[in-house]
Input
Amino acid sequence: MSSDVGIGRRILLVEDDQLTRSLLAEMLESSGFVVATAPAAADARRAFRLLDPDALVLDVDLGPGPTGFDVADALLASSPHLAVLFLTNLPDSRFAGRDPDSLPPGVGYVRKEKLTSSGVLVEALDAVLRENSAAIPRDDLDPQRPMGGLSGTQIAVLRMVALGMSNEQISEARGTSSRAVRNVITRALALIGSTEDAEGSGRVAAARNYMLTAGIPLSEL
Output
């Protein structure tokens, strides 16, 4: 793709990790985009007012506080013309408590491990800017994505296990029984190929699998 594909296009990049933010900004600027960066939601709102961007590129997990989904929703409410591209380690939006079908139409979703070159990022961003639905990446809908076969309930319970919650704490939080929680964990472990049960080493396996797939879980959804 031409190195001047971004000329005249303004991008607001929201990413909480400083090194990643710098690398992504450099990738975009080398393709001609004008880039403003922000590490969190409040900074993004200020940068948005100054830049009036054509597109948002957002991480989903921005640390404590609003997620990238929340930032996109807020800015799209006032500027529905914005193109949106999510870049994240999360296999899909359910890991941040959001149903994939509830994401705004026309958004892109790219897992960071797919960013093997600047061209991948630029092509994805160009697709959402052009509203080229055939080319817009949606890694969150890939049937082969990690833990893609789990239900929203199973993901939510594994997240709680990874946060260190006991079965009793999970059952209280979800308004169900400890037995039901054990069944959810056992079924989830079976679906991801683990033969452990829902107690002891099984809980360790559940937490390990979750964190290997999605990282340290978001503590507040």
Observations:
- The chain has two domains: 10-141, 152-214.
- The chain is about 45% helix and 10% strand.
